[in-house]
Write a structure and sequence with these properties.
By secondary structure, this protein is an alpha+beta fold. The chain folds into two domains: 55 residues, no CATH class; 68 residues, no CATH class. This is RNase H type-1 domain-containing protein.
Length: 148
């Protein structure tokens, strides 16, 4: 109880966040067989504090400019390819989707790949460039089959 009575709110924030990061690392070690180094645990705690501070100081009452984006078709003779991927930290699955459209906006191919092997990407679901690159050979093989 000494720490609660004699430390600043920033010290308490750091203390409890580090304690949580150690507990989280312990659980990952026991349940997933994955252990982070002490430096990684420390960095995760510091990053969590920074993320929380950023979120807590964001003024949500200020209207944000909305970006109007709409899909535009490519010129004739050109195809537009969109690739996206996601991975789940819960069950270890990953998916890649690719869509290819022509100048009329019509779908030429729409392959989807699901794998139980996690692809290189962030656990948050935002695919890395590696995830997107892995989709290209699979897409190319599929699109050749579609066009025959």
């Amino acid at each position: 109880m000494f720490i609660l009575a004699h430390k600043s709110s920033q010290d308490l924030e750091l203390f409890f966040t580090v304690a949580w990061a150690i507990w989280y690392n312990r659980n990952r070690t026991i349940h997933e067989g994955m252990c982070s180094s002490p430096l990684q645990v420390w960095q995760m705690a510091r990053s969590s504090i920074e993320d929380f501070s950023d979120a807590a100081t964001t003024d949500l009452s200020t209207p944000r400019p909305t970006l109007s984006s709409c899909w535009s078709p490519p010129p004739p003779g050109v195809f537009k390819i969109n690739v996206d991927g996601a991975s789940s930290g819960l069950d270890g699955t990953s998916s890649i989707g690719v869509i290819i459209r022509d100048c009329k906006g019509e779908t030429i191919a729409l392959p989807l790949q699901t794998s139980s092997v996690p692809l290189p990407g962030r656990i948050s679901g935002t695919p890395s460039i590696g995830t997107r690159c892995l989709a290209c050979p699979r897409f190319a093989a599929h699109s050749r089959d579609v066009r025959k």
